[in-house]
Each structure stands twice: as structure tokens, then as C-alpha cells.
Amino acid sequence: MSEQNTLTYARVNDDIIRMLDKPTFKWWALFLPTLLFVGFGLFCFIYQVYTGLGVAGYRHPVFWGVYITDFVFWVGIAHSGTLISAILFLFRANFRMSIYRIAEGMTVFAVLTAGLFPIIHLGRPWNFYWLFPYPNQRELWVNFKSPLLWDVFAVSTYLTVSSVFFFIGLIPDIAAVRDRVKEVPRKIMYSVLSLGWKGSNWEWLHYTRAYLFFAAFATPLVLSVHSVVSWDFAMSNLPGWHTTIFAPYFVAGAIFSGLGMVITLTVPIRKIFHLEDYITLDNYDGMAKLIMLTSGIVGYAYGIEFFMAWYSGVPAEWYQFYYRATGEYALFYWIMVVCNVVIPLPLWFKRVRRNILALFIISIFINIGMWFERFNIIVISLSRGFDPAAWGIYTPSWVEIGITVGSFAWFFMFFLIFLKTLPSVSIAEMKEILPVPKKEAKT
Amino acid sequence: MSDKQGVLGIFSYVDVTIETVKKLKDAGFNNLRVFSPVPNHEIEEVMDEPESIVRFFTLGGAMLGAACGVGFTVLMSTDWPISVSAKPIVSLPPFMVIIFELTILMGALATLLGLLINSRLRRNAPITMYDTRFSEDKFGVMITCEKENVKDAEEILTSQGAEDIKFDGV
Known about the structure:
The structure holds two protein chains of two kinds.
Chain A: H1 9-18, H2 25-51, H3 66-90, H4 100-114, H5 116-120, H6 147-180, H7 184-193, H8 201-234, H9 246-272, H10 281-312, H11 315-326, H12 330-342, H13 350-353, H14 356-383, H15 398-421, H16 427-432, H17 439-442
Chain B: E1 4-11, H1 14-26, E2 32-35, H2 41-47, H3 54-79, H4 92-118, E3 139-146, H5 150-159, E4 164-169
Helix pairs in contact in B: 1-2, 3-4
């Protein structure tokens, strides 16, 4: 932490609250195009609702395509936020301090994005509430044995808990902003959001305990949610899906992709807002080591899937994996392997882990690779089931691509608003890793 | 009109703040409040407040969530039993997922409630007894005492080198 020794409590407030100054031209130059793409995504969705689900590229036998790929991708992105904020908190890993707020914000916005896709994927999206158990005139309840219903409970719990956790962490920082801003509307907004926080010993006593319990709850939750998402697939008996390694494979993949996205987001923020003293090379080094670990796990999973398919002695299972690596979708399969296993390999060298440009480039490839991983699992498995007479090829339509692009814009739109409204580096927690001001140290 | 008076001393250093609290306690001032920009174990130790009861909210919420999970799944499944592939109507392994998620959800929401109730946000100190520097880099000690003891409290704060002293009727 030697790089943070020049920081003081007052400077932390100055630097981080300055990020909330009036949006600049550059911010608008990023924000307005995102609005445009969100609008295009919305247009595609309205067109799909008006015309019918036929405008998506679904063809027999592939009826889960890009939308479900997007759902799993965004749920995965959401995971490292909670990993960084909760699991690393319990392990007292100090490198999380400067990045956890951005990661938590990313989590909330990614779950908000993910939650749209099961609805977009419905033929009649206006009936989405049928997924929830509510008293109705047919006296009919939902099927609790279905993994799809587990998903509803898991993802909505995850959204609620991660949003509350995000907000709790923000309270002392919002109070710091409240004490600084002068304009009346902003003062009112931050006063309401800070819930009257004053930083008394009583507040800190309950706050620190509550935060610990939130972290303790969020930790098993984060592991459960992506396990549940993986069981959407693993509980069926389709070749390529019906495997016991899916839960740990998905959880490792989720953390891997989420860390990739954290690096993709923090590198430009660090540069634009001059946060070099906050988000240090040590922080990136810690994240890069986690990427090395999770990349190794997903690489192992890619390999062991082939072994299990061969060892099972089931021809359909073995053909599924042979087809993944050599069939019509082989290009996507090898993009996944190269992006997720080969490109992160240089991270074994310390020089690469501490090179911001190299990390940024690797993180972009990880994002691409992990999107294709979900596409491969979903689409390739569905296109080659047990019965050769029912095999088919799926190609995404322009509507699906438009909605996917719109979802990225939707995510970045929230993120850009977040950067200008809430402190994106935790003021209170950054101060916790600085030396406490003591008179005896001065004398 | 209350006979109580609030006195607030503002400090730059945590060790001086802690020393001040000790002196005030030795002088018989027990209604104290310390403000700080970060949580601090030494302050917690010297203030010697009882352990937070937020944990009981968490436990209660989690147990209620688990009970709701069992209730939801079992009662709704038996309310309209649909037998699929000879699977049991009440089957705990799949229900465990729902029970687990509701345990976490209600435990977390109860923790939030526990925090809001116990930390007494919005009403734990009069607003004039707060200084905006507490959210930046200053520490504060607030004493609530009888009006006749204000002078003694002020003397201790001054002798400890308080940078600023504020007074308010409580």
C-alpha cells in the first residue's frame, strides 16, 4: 500500500467527490450514443412484440438462442461484484477497497440487464408475472420443481440483496457528499439518501455488524445464483448440458467474466478521473491473479468435458463435443478457448499483471470469450441433440443482435449515470486503509 | 425546557479523541457520543457500548425466511397436487433451493431493518451538534450533561486541545 501513503482523509473526500462535478462534454459524448443504442434495442423489442417471436432466429430444434446467452452472460458479469464486495471483504483482502464500489454498481446494473432477457425471450412478455406464486382465480400455483422457477427466486433475491448491499455501503459516502454540495436540489437528494447519517460511534457499531452479516449472506448467495443458472441446463438430459460439473464451472466462469468487466470499466475511469493513487497497480495485480485462477478452472472444465463425454460411452454425448470443436460452430468454440484460456496466459508474468494496457486488452478478450462460452453451451448443445433427424442450425437475426447491442448500451447508460451521481470509489473504506491520524505519530 | 445541555468538541486526532473520552468518563460524564469519518476499534473499545443486537434481527429474519420457504413450497404443492413422472408431490431436494433463497432474502432484509432501527438514523443527535467535517477528517466528542456541569466539560475539552467547541440545548 506504499503507493497510497500520500493520501489523506481530506484528499480522499476532495478527489472522489470531484468526480460528481457537472458532466463534461466527454461524458455527454459517451452518454448520448448509449441512449441511441438503448432506443434501437427498444425498437427491436417493440418490433418483436408486435410481429411475434418468429423475428428472432429461433428454428427447430434451437429455441434458446442469443437471449438466453445474454441472460447467462449478464448474470455472470454480476457475480464478481459480490465476490469483490462480500467474499474478499470476509477474507480482508485490502485490494478490493478501491474497486468494490464500481464492481457493486456493475453487479446491480448487470442483474437489471439480465432480468430483462427471460422476459424478452417470452412469446407473450406481458404475462411474465405468471412466474411468481400469487393467488389467482384458477387456484393454480407455480411448479417449484422446475429449475426455471428456481431461477426466478435466485435472480430476484440476488437483485434485492445486491441492491441493498450496494446502498448500505453507500450511506456514509452519500453523507460525505451531502456535507459538501451546495446546490439545494442535490443537497436535498443526498440528505434523503444518506438517511441522516452522522458517523457517530453508535451508527458505526451497528453499521459494521450489519455489513458483516450482509457479506456473510451475500457469499453463499453469489455461489448459489450461478449454480441455479447452471441447473437450468444441467437438470435436463440433453448432450452437452447434463453434467455434474456445471455448477462450479459456471461459478468460476462468472467470476472470471465479471473480473474481466471490472478491469474493462476501471481502466478508463482510472485514467479519466486521475485515480492512479486509488486504483493502484497492486489492486490490478490482485484481480489479475484471480483471473489466472478462474481462467485455469474454466480451461480445466473445457478439457474435462471432453474426457467425460468420451468416458461416458454415450455416442450422442461424445458426438456433441466432437461437433463443438469441428462442426459449423467450431469458429465460435475456438474463439472461446483462445480468449478464455490462451490469451490470459501471459498474466502468469508479473510485468503483464502490472501493465494496464495489457490488462485492458486481455479483459476485452475475456468479455468476448465468455459471451461465446454461453453461446456455445446453449446453441451448439441444442442444435445436436440425441436424434439426428432433429438436428438443425441456428443463426441469430438482426432483431436479436439489436437487442443484445441495446443491452450493452442499457448497462453502460446506468453505469455512466452512476459515475456522475454516486461516489464510485468508497470514501469511508479508502480511509480505513490509510494510517489513522494520530498526534503521537506527528510528534 | 430541558435541563440538559449538549457540548461538542472537535479534534483532528483519534488518540486525542480517545484520551478525551477517558478523561470525561473519569470525571463522571457518561452520556457521550463520538463522531468519526471511519469506524475505529479503539473508539469502540473506549466507548464500551453493548454488543449490537442487529444479529438477532438477522437470525430472526433468516429463520422466518426458511419457514416461509417451507410453507410456500409444501402448502402450494399440496393445494393443487399435480403428479408428474411419478415424482413425489412434496419433494425436499428441489424445494431446498427456494428455502435457501428465501432464507437469504429475508435475513438480509431483516438486517437492513435492524440497522435502520438500532442505529437510530435521523434522530441520534441534534443537527446543530453535528459538524460537516466529521464526514471528512475530524473527530468529535459530544457530551450531554446537566447545565451546571457544562463548564467542567468545556474545561476538559479545552485542556485536551479541542479545535472547536459548540453548545446546544438538548
